[in-house]
Amino acid sequence: MKIKVLPFYLFVLFPFCLNAQSQRSYNAAEIKQGLEALSVTGRVLYIAAHPDDENTRLLAYLSKGKKYKTAYLSLTRGDGGQNLIGTEQADQLGLLRTQELLAARQIDGAEQFFTRANDFGFSKTAEEALRFWDEKKILSDVVWVIRKFQPDVIITRFPGDERAGHGAHAASAILAEKAFSAAADPRQFPEQLAYLKPWKTGRIVWNTFNFGGTNTITADQLSMDVGQYNALLGQSYGEIAADSRSRHRSQGFGSAKQRGSAMESFQHRAGVPAKKDLFEDVDASLNKYPGLKDVQFLINDINKRYRVEAPYESIAQLLQLKTATAKLPFDHVKLDELILACAGIWIEAVSAHPAYGVNDLMTYELQAISRLPSGSPLKVELLVDREDPIELKPGNLIRLNRALPDSARKLTQPYWLANPHGIGAYVFTGIENLGAPENKAPSAGDVAIKINGTRIAVDRSIIYKYANPAVGEIYQPLVIAPPITATLQEKAYVFNNQTPRKISVSIRSFIKNAKGKLEIKVPKGWNVAPSSIDLNLAEKGTEEILDFTVTPNEKATSGKLELQIVTAGETYNKGFQQIAYEHIPVQTLFPQAEARLEQLDLKFAGKQIGYVAGAGDLIPQSLKQVGYEVTMLDANLLNGDLSRFDAIVTGVRLYNINEDAAAMQAKLMAYVKNGGTLVQQYNVNNPLKISQIGPYPFTITRDRVTEEDADVSFLKPDHALLNYPNKITQKDFEGWVQERGIYFASNLDEKYTPILRMGDKGEQPSNGSLIIAEYGKGKYIYTGLVFYRELPAGVPGAYRLFVNLLSAGAKSTDKK
């Protein structure tokens, strides 16, 4: 056992703006953009299936060019995709991609919505996606967003057929078109009418495309140029879009900036057809709402008189506008933001600590300053919780110490991950978060600014900030945690015999003097010692590493290891995890304190493995669990003596992302030629850093098997890969998760031997999931089987087959 104190957010290097409730600075050009937008009431909702499906160039044009209120509804959070920058998968990847979407929206100016749909992986048909999601449930969510956002125009990214290229893509279009009608029908989802009204959208169109070998653009479609230049912002919408799309780093979507004309085309789907403009015959002006027509003259005058060197001169007229529209359907939030920006008012609520226990006393400092010119005739006051007003004199920073009320002390767990969920959809109660991209952060409460007697509400989240000597000021979300958390190192613990195994757990305190007991539960057939451990952590932020021993007996079967912490009369069962990258705010979640226990019948031939990391996976840790000695290799280490390795494995997408791939390949092929075994995991066919990744030609296709329980046939049942050192049977393909494999091989040189045959129901099976060839004295293997998902999940058959691949070069009279 060892005790250590760790600082929170250890890996954070860069500042990041948190969310809409955090203070945002507007420069004079952005204020002018906002003033011009006050006359525009048009709303556009863009709908697709995943993060990164959205057309950021179109969103930027509609939001910042046409100044329509624009939003993107992504049905899923992208949990089922791949990750090019780290090891996060499933729920954690969805959390990362959610934040990448929010970062993109901060650049292109659109809002972001989601449904409850879980991204369960690649789907080949819309029918499958709708079945897994529960079509009616997700249709209800899309209708909710339409009724809440009230768009004039809906745009889909994909068609509702096979041209979409992905079942979820097609399903997003099908649901959008059904929701277009359902949102206007009070008989559809009437339970929503307690909160929202039916909404009739003017038209729905499909944003056609020419990519991926599919051209859906025709001459008769409505088209418009969205590549224009915005002089106020100093960028074209293509440039803004590239910055936005480049936020999707986990997907490798860094984009070059595009300048010049850029045409977008649209096919009419329902509603009133348009021939020349998306908003043809749609009133996007203030005339749409009774009473607002009369304020247009005032807005025009504000824009005419606005001076970029003196935005504060517009405040008096903006306050007049606020009074005139007080009881009218106007964008009061945007107007309030513009008034505060013109006054140079900065307000933020800063926590004293980065994290608190849920029952801890939480304090923060409310800071406010007005940067109006000295001698300004405007009287500015700060109002907090209905207390006496405090005058904000120009240049004077006000600091008020406050305490977070008990009602606001809620666990900062992503709301859609608060409960266990199945393959199709997240599970959560209540409607306050439905459609929302993330939890609303703890609020600073009832805060307002009064300027010359006019009250302006201020919504500010409580944040944590600190100064990093290397990069400066850093902002991060406030964390509210259980008093004590228990975090296991693995999601699955794999045992190969009845040998006892030490398991470590990280105990972290979020309060002072944290006392309690850790209780450890194992299923029948397993033993644990000790079964409970007393806890006593004196300091907040202390991390204590505790060990216990788990032993399976001969009758042990798959089961669950569960941890509970009893403290102050309450029981907690949460771990602690943070996702930290420079392009998003640090994300904190509290997963269940549990792991899978798996007992395998596993035989080995060789234990020394070299591993060349690819885009990020957890296979090295998985191999170490069952007794392999794994050495991580890079381009320099590949110059050493490789003959000591029984096999070398390359990580997923190595040949797509590593600039040293060509130099590595020569060394790896020499290793094989001299008698080594090389196991290459999947790569995508474009872009590859080298033209040929194997010793002989083959083509990497987009073929995949998405059904995790798809039938598997043995093409070479007597081949060593299926017999040594473990006899592979159909049972070894039971219990796989998400999918069988992706990016299979095809057009094989005659020197390759395909081992397995598999395919989704109703499709032509593929022979390219696992191929092997002799090269010189060694063995070369390429596999699209998703071992990077299966091994960390503790799937027994995947372990047994992977061990056979690693043993391909071992000496055995059984091998054929």
TrEMBL record:
The record's annotation in InterPro entries points to: Class_I_gatase-like, GlcNAc_PI_deacetylase-related, LmbE-like_dom_sf
What keyword terms does UniProt attach to this protein? Signal
* Signal peptide extent: 1-20
Q: Which GO terms describe its molecular function?
A: hydrolase activity, acting on carbon-nitrogen (but not peptide) bonds, in linear amides
Origin, by domain of life? Answer: Bacteria
Any single Pfam family the record assigns to this protein: PIG-L
Show the Gene3D superfamilies listed in the entry: LmbE-like (3.40.50.10320)
Q: Under which name does UniProt file this protein?
A: PIG-L domain-containing protein
Organism listed in the record: Pedobacter quisquiliarum
Taxonomic path: Bacteria, Pseudomonadati, Bacteroidota, Sphingobacteriia, Sphingobacteriales
